[in-house]
Amino acid sequence: MEEEVIERCKNGDLQAFEALFEQFGRRLYGLCLRMSGNSADAEDLMQEIFMLVLTKIKTFRGEAKFSTWLYRLAVNACISHLRKRRPGSISFDLGEFEAAEFSSAPEPIVRRTALKRAIAELPVGYRTAVILHDIQGYKHTEIAAMRGISVGASKSQLFKARRALREVLSTGEAQVEIAAAGMR
Amino acid sequence: MDAKKDEILIQRYLLGDMEEHECRQFEGRLERDQRLRELLSEYRELIGDLRELDDPEVPEALWSRRIRPALEERLGNSPGVLERLRTAFGAWRGFMLKPAYVTAVFAVLLLVVTVLVVQLLERPQTPGEERVAQTLGRIENLRQQFQAELAVLIGEVEERRELMSPELRRLYDDTLARIDEAIADAERFYLLYPTDADAIEFLFAAYDRKGQFLQRFVNMDL
Questions:
Q1: Is the pTM of this model over 0.90?
Q2: What ipTM was predicted for this assembly?
């Protein structure tokens, strides 16, 4: 099934690309949104990734799993985009607003907001590690294959990322934000 | 032992990355060392929070609005006008007409949505940031519309105030005061983070709750 879709993609069949989008779109969009920190960049990235798939899919020989190949492409596109991004870009996650369930408790919202912001502030390598492992649930071996790094490097980046996040959250930034927002 | 090494040990422990003897040694230390237990608990909480940040839904019509036209262009086809119209309307419908938001107050605002949809149909395709700026403007506009509609509902309830029993009036005043406090909190949060999804949702849900509360008094058989 997947092989057939890939072959059709190689022949420029738009319906096959749509099938890929349906199968991998949510996961890819999650990656783009967490990596970029805003829905505008995430949409641009999704478009860029599918354009890359269009131009590069002929090089896919089936030596790795297609999902690993696709994710490697996506992660590299995100990293490259972040390195090029101009400073001071707007931060906005309308994508989540359109989709998220409403939660009435303000404290979890503030903590989640603080966490999302802290992730967005992490260096790119750390951010990639925490998104792929802790949020999207990939194993270190999979991440290492996707990113072309060693398993040890993947673990090391994850540990450092979590330590940075823990420090941000435990220094009371979330509480400061609650106070600043006038919340009890 | 220094804190940095402890943090690495905790993460290896949580990852299941320790040899059996290391694991026993670490658990022995955990029993004796309260600070280590607290640190472990902080990490568990952090990892739990991260796992809850699951993949968000893909924005409505991202495929047909952005990706398909780009692929078609590269492949030498051009998008049809009908497809673009359908896409533009789809994007708005997805944003506005979610069941959770369809309340009496939102029903009044459908007229505004219709106007916005027409405006959206007239616009050419725009890149991500421009679309975001447009959507932000619409959200602010909706916020003002919501406030205006709530003011109308309050006026309607006030007209019926004389018909309320003293007990019901007190209940109405107390509850409304509590809802207004929650809205004031939500507005402060929104003004701090006007582009944050949670802040926007929190605010609109608070307006929605107030709308439902007032509507109940408007419809009440007094």
A1: no
A2: 0.76
